[in-house]
Each structure stands twice: as structure tokens, then as C-alpha cells.
Amino acid sequence: RSVVPQKDLESFQAHLNSSTRILALLGAGLSASSGLPTFRGAGGLWRTHDAVELATPEAFGRDPGLVWQFYSYRRHMALQAKPNPAHYALAELARKKEGFMTLSQNVDGLSPRANHPPEKLKLLHGSLFDVKCSEFFCKHTESNNYTDPIVPALAIPTDESDPTTISALQARELDISDENVALPELAIRDLPRCPKCKRGLLRPGVVWFGEMLPTQVLDDIDKWMADSKKIDLIMVIGTSAKVYPAAGYVDSARAKGAKVAVVNMDRADMPASGLYKGDWFFEGDAAQIVPEILK
Ligand code: BJW
User: Fold this and answer.
1) Which residue's alpha carbon is at the smallest distance from atom 4 of ligand 1?
2) What is this model's ipTM?
3) What is the pLDDT of residues 215-249, one digit of tens each?
4) Hey, what CATH topology would domain 1-36+82-125+212-295 get?
5) From the CA of 45, how far away is ligand 1's center (Å)?
6) 180: annotated binding-site residue?
7) Where does the chain hold its CATH 3.30.1600.10 domain(s)?
């Protein structure tokens, strides 16, 4: 059953069909229905820690063990999650429309796993499955490292006292996002170490606050923008659009004439600025709305 008002659906689809240069800006809300929590608002806490505060170089410098436990947990959850219908609908649109480009802030690997064409998917904030050396002088990086856990010490503990007969270890995993579950003690020597310089700790290949976004990604987007005399549409899906430079692409697209379609669970969460009010606001679960409006 449709959740989108017919009039909005028709006007949006008419515009989409006549559009040739289209952007989608994606955020954590896109993957919420796949079971992955967002950053802000409900679900933005990991144990007692604000998820946004763990996503900083300072947090890693202070307590690399805690930050690795956070990211190792998220790698594990992301690997268990499945892309939802919105990931697939966007991948399909990317295959169909020549001038379509997705800018994703998500690091969960769900768009790649939905077979989104890679040349039309720019990962603004990196990937949970890339790792790199944390030493400034060492440029070692590894892409698509899906080892889970990445080192034995980061294995999610299981409940050995669980009387269940289920033999699969997975069924007895403790939920370490619950602050009442004790985190295993970690020694620095047990954390992932750079195989190249042998000195630095490896860290997740994601972009933390105060860090530059990947240069190649920024260059590709700048080129796409420069090649577009006019941009017809930007879809802003499941993001609070509060983090820059990502959120700035909405303004840049608008400056080139783009209409803005917002898909979000919560109208009140969008920045107050008129720029984000959107020509269309589709309120609800992206996993349901995106396939419907892109049909
Ligand atoms: C649903 C739903 C459902 C829920 N369906 N919807 C200009 C002005 C002010 C500040 C700056 C500026 N330029 C740069 C800055 C500084 C900073 C910044 O932006 N700060 C602001 C917060 C004020 N930016 C940076 O530091 C960036 N780097 C940079 O600019 O480098 C150059 C530079 C360096 C030094 C000095 C100056 C410049 C880097 C930003 C990196 C962000 N990294 C993170 C962590 C990534 C790794 C990880 O995943 O752990 O990226 S933070 C976090 O926020 C993550 C996300 O990608 C990002 C955006 O969050 P997102 O996706 O929008 O999630 P939420 O939770 O905020 O929103 C979810 C939405 O979904 C909500 O609206 C819900 O309602 C909705 N929803 N369920 C549909 N089912």
C-alpha cells in the first residue's frame, strides 16, 4: 500500500523522468531498516558513548581499544545486515540513468553489496572495510578487508553459560552495544598492527571529524559538478544533512537549478534552513519510500 501522496508521487516522477543530471545524497537512515543504527537521535549511543564522539582521531588517540571495539562491532553488524529495497532501487536507477551519481556518507558497504555501479557511487566517508595505518608517515591502506573479527582479540564474546543447545556460536554472542555487558580487556599489542611499517596501529579507513575526505572522491565529484551546466534533481535520503562538506552538496546542486527531494523519517530533524525544506518531502522509512518513488 502506497505511503506517498499520489499528487507528490506524480509530480516527482514526472520531474525524475525528464531529469538527466541527478544526485542522491545518502545517510545512515537509508540503512536503518537493515538494522544499522543512525548517529544522531535514538540509537546514536554506543554503550554510554556518543557515536559521533567515538568517530574522532582524538578518541582513537585516547583509547584505541575502545574505538576498535566500536568499529569491530559495526563491521560485524554490517556484515550480518542485508541491503534493503532502497539500496537496490538506487543501484537500479544508477544503471538506468546515465547522468546519475550517488554520494554516500555511509560506510556500511550495503550500497556496494546491492551492486550499485561503483563508478557512480562516491563514498564520502570511506568504508568500514578499509583499514589504514594510523602513523602519519606510513601510507599503508587495505581495501575490502572483510575479516571478522579483524584480529582475534576483537571477537565478540559469547555467553558460555547459556544453557541453550544451539551449537552455532553466533547465537550465543553477547550484545556489546549494551553497557551492562562487560567489554573484554584489550591490550594494545592485541590490536591490529600495520603489516608494512610494523609500528603503527591499523585504524578503520573511515573519515573522522576534522579529517579530509578522500581527495579522489572530492575531485570526482567536483568534476561531475563542473561537467553539469545544470543539475535537475538532488535526492536527500536518510540523512540529517548536518555534516559538511557532504551537506554542502545540496546547496551546490540547488545553485545549479536542482530541485530537492527529501526522504526522511522525521521532518523535524532536517536543518531549519529553507534550502533543505525540499521541493518534495517524503516522510517515512526510506526502505519503503525510495523503491516506491523510483518505480
Ligand atoms: C531515516 C530513517 C529511515 C532515520 N528512513 N530516514 C562547515 C560548517 C560547519 C562545520 C564544518 C564545515 N565544514 C567542515 C566542518 C567540520 C565538520 C562538520 O561538518 N561539523 C558539523 C557537524 C558542524 N566536518 C568535518 O570535520 C569533515 N572534514 C572536513 O571538513 O575536512 C576539512 C577540514 C579539516 C579540518 C578543518 C576544517 C576542514 C569530516 C566529516 C566526517 C564525518 N564522519 C562521520 C563518521 C564516519 C565514520 C563512521 O561511520 O563511524 O560520518 S560522523 C557521522 O555523521 C558519519 C555520517 O556519515 C555523518 C552524517 O550522519 P547521517 O548519515 O546524516 O546520520 P544522522 O544520524 O545524523 O541522520 C540520520 C537521519 O536519518 C535522520 O535525519 C533521521 O531522521 C533519518 N532516519 N531512520 C529514512 N528508516
Assistant:
1) 29
2) 0.96
3) 999 999 999 999 999 999 999 999 999 999 999 99
4) Rossmann fold (3.40.50)
5) 15
6) no
7) 37-80+128-206
Q: Which pLDDT score, from 0 to 100, does residue 191 have? A: 97
pLDDT of 2-45, one tens digit each?
689 999 999 999 999 999 999 999 999 999 999 999 998 777 88
Residue limits of CATH 3.40.50.1220 in the chain: 1-36+82-125+212-295
Distance between CA atoms of residues 230 and 218, nearest Å: 19
C-alpha torsion angle, residues 124, 128, 131, 135 (rounded to 10): 70
What is 37-80+128-206's CATH number?
3.30.1600.10
C-alpha dist (Å) from residue 169 to 71, 78, 164, 172 = 21, 18, 11, 5
Query: According to the model, what pLDDT value does residue 82 have?
Result: 98
Q: Which three cell numbers stand for residue 292?
A: 516506491
Catalytic member of 76, 87, 116, 125 = 125
Ligand 1 neighbours (beta carbon < 6 A): 27-29, 32-33, 38-40, 52, 55, 105, 107, 125, 206-212, 238-240, 242-245, 263-266, 269, 285-286
Consult the annotation and say whether 194 binds a ligand: yes
Pick the range with the lowest mean pLDDT from 35-39, 107-111, 269-273, 277-281.
Answer: 269-273
Atom of ligand 1 nearest to the CA of 241: 63
DSSP helix, strand, coil percent of the chain (3-state; round to 5):
40, 15, 45
Closest residue CA from atom 78 of ligand 1: 29
Known catalytic membership, residue 15: no
Residue listed under C-alpha cell 553459560? 161
Confidence at residue 167, expressed as pLDDT on a 0 to 100 scale = 57
